[in-house]
Amino acid sequence: MRTHTRGAPSVFFIYLLGFVSAYITDENPEVMIPFTNANYDSHPMLYFSRAEVAELQLRAASSHEHIAARIIEAVHTMLSSPLEYLPPWDPKDYSARWNEIYGNNLGALAMFCVLYPENIEARDMAKDYMERMAAQPSWLVKDAPWDEVPLAHSLVGFATAYDFLYNYLSKTQQEKFLEVIANASGYMYETSYRRGWGFQYLHNHQPTNCMALLTGSLVLMNQGTMPA
Which parts of the chain span the membrane according to its record (predicted)? Predict the structure, then answer.
């Protein structure tokens, strides 16, 4: 299976954060997303607010067109061969190989849906993608259950897509997908106490796994589901 976002979260989030931070810096260095009593005002909230989406869409057609072009290319490739890029429904197939690609590609697909909301085909694919990932009992690789990196990639992509697509999800999907994020984040949190990446800050897995835990936790906190 091919991917245009291999190395994500690194590649995807370098593009995403560059896109968003450049916009925020240009407009107002003091801009912050409203945050009160452990809740942001709405979704999206991880990297930008709902009020900033329209400006991001404008930038995608102007100053940030070169970044948007890479996202467009990746998503058009996925849409041209959906069965090649969608995660399998069968858990045996999902866990049979190194599967970080699923979280990687979902992040790019979700960002495309933010920038081009008129593309219903992409949005439907993103929701189908999330349903397939949510159907998995685990995002770990069967032959490497001690390695949380694939799970981390899946969690970052899934939590990001949840934030970006929240207002397009049904109530049932919102609740089901949030439970998936809670379960994966909880697993990562508990595992951090017994894996080197949880306390060895030069560990090569540390930034990937902690980024995933942070992303999932922020979504849970915003929904008021963080455990005490």
Answer: none
